[in-house]
Write a structure and sequence with these properties.
The protein contains three helices and five strands, in the order E-E-E-E-E-H-H-H. Strand 1 and strand 2 (17-19) form a beta hairpin. The strands form two sheets. Strands 4-3-5 form a three-stranded antiparallel sheet. A two-stranded antiparallel sheet has the order 1-2. By secondary structure, the protein is of the alpha+beta class. The radius of gyration is 13 Å and the shape is globular. Helices cover 32% and strands 23% of the residues. The mean pLDDT is 88.
């Protein structure tokens, strides 16, 4: 029996492929809200980044998060995301 494949995702900040479990998922839910998805299983469009604020800042500065989620991310949402990431 072959070993189980580990799903890889790309960090929006540093652009490195990493195992999905090492990354934080940001999701745009069906109703249009943007939030942190600690389970990685919420329904919606997701984007991933490393567990450090530098990668989040870089993805925000270069507008990668908005492009990945296909919606504009407001400053209030960014502040809430940073708080949530600090708690993880």
């Amino acid at each position: 029996m072959s070993p189980k494949k580990i799903p890889l995702r790309m960090c929006l900040g540093c652009r490195e492929m990493r195992p999905k479990r090492e990354l934080i998922r940001i999701v745009r839910t069906i109703d249009g809200t943007v939030e942190v998805d600690p389970t990685g299983k919420k329904s919606g469009r997701g984007a991933y980044f490393c567990k450090n604020l530098e990668c989040l800042d870089k993805s925000l500065k270069e507008d990668r998060l908005s492009k990945a989620l296909d919606c504009s991310v407001s400053k209030e949402v960014v502040a809430r995301l940073k708080e949530d990431v600090d708690q993880i």
